[in-house]
Design brief:
Belongs to the binding-protein-dependent transport system permease family. CysTW subfamily. It comes from Kaistia soli DSM 19436. With 294 residues, this protein is mostly helical. It has a single domain, classed as MetI-like (MetI-like fold, Orthogonal Bundle). The protein is globular.
Length: 294
């Protein structure tokens, strides 16, 4: 009996590992700064000011002003995500498969890693100093080409102005996300297509893009979620005059005039659902794409 139990005991001992200690800080960080705050928001969305259960906060999300704020946020997120995908994909394609000098790629990747995290007050100030009414680019265009972009209808503190500002970190993020997929395109596929008489256009439309399509769509969803949750850049650039949902959420929880924390929790719950669906779809599409580029 003891001889029979010995292998099972040894197997259990071999399964015991201390490697879990390496990810323990990450687990604790996620618990304290992601899971517990999200759980508090979800609970608060179904409570009134006295802590009693209510669905009124969810019903209040149907107010016209809140619907407009969600719509505006969705539009800005979609526009900046689409622009980021198109420009970032072209940039990554030219760098990785375009035959540029080798030093271009590490330089671009380093810049993208930094620029994709550059947001908030510094980014807002940079764009005000560049494309504001007295910004450097605005002044140069007027003095050299006699072009006044503000007289032509451009306004940095508007839908397109905020979208252009978001592109500063959306494009580098797209470069980082799509580069592994471009690296996964095997040379043998293009050689086989050429041997069979396919043109470059046919290769890209019938082979490369269908393989890259899950990666491109997943990247769009990731960039969409990234822009939808942004607040620091928009708030620093436009203040409370631009009614996107993150600024409205801040006003409900911290503001003086619109102070209603539980409605703010409901707004945050709606954002969690939207970004959760986007990120979930991105993970699913990324797993599908990984099967081709292994």
């Amino acid at each position: 009996m003891s001889i029979t139990a010995l292998p099972a005991t040894a197997a259990r001992e071999r399964r015991i590992t201390w490697s879990w200690l390496g990810i323990l800080p990450f687990i604790l960080f996620s618990l304290m700064f992601l899971l517990l705050p999200a759980a508090n928001l979800i609970v608060g969305a179904f409570q009134d000011a006295s802590g009693n259960f209510t669905l009124q906060n969810i019903v209040n999300l149907g107010q016209p002003s809140i619907i407009r704020s969600y719509t505006l946020s969705l539009q800005i997120s979609a526009a900046s995500a689409l622009g980021g995908v198109l420009i970032g994909f072209a940039l990554a394609l030219a760098t990785i498969l375009g035959g540029l000098p080798r030093w271009v790629r590490p330089t671009l990747m380093t810049f993208s890693g930094v620029a994709s995290q550059f947001a908030g007050v510094p980014l807002a100030f940079a764009f005000l100093a560049t494309l504001g009414r007295t910004g450097l680019v605005t002044a140069l265009l007027f003095s050299i080409f006699d072009i006044n972009i503000y007289r032509g209808g451009f306004n940095l503190l508007s839908f397109w102005g905020l979208t252009i500002t978001y592109l500063y970190f959306q494009i580098p993020l797209m470069v980082l996300v799509v580069s592994p997929a471009l690296d996964g395109l095997k040379r043998e596929w293009r050689e086989a297509a050429a041997i069979l008489g396919a043109t470059g256009w046919q290769y890209w439309t019938m082979i490369a893009l269908p393989i890259l399509w899950p990666s491109l769509l997943g990247a769009f969803l990731l960039l969409f979620a990234n822009a939808f949750g942004a607040i620091a850049t928009a708030y620093a650039l436009t203040g409370s005059s631009f009614n996107i949902v993150t600024i409205l959420l801040y006003a409900q929880i911290r503001g003086d005039a619109l102070h209603d924390p539980n409605l703010g929790y409901a707004l945050a719950l709606g954002m969690i659902v939207i970004t959760g669906v986007s990120n979930g779809a991105y993970i699913w599409l990324a797993s599908r794409s990984a099967r081709w580029i292994r």
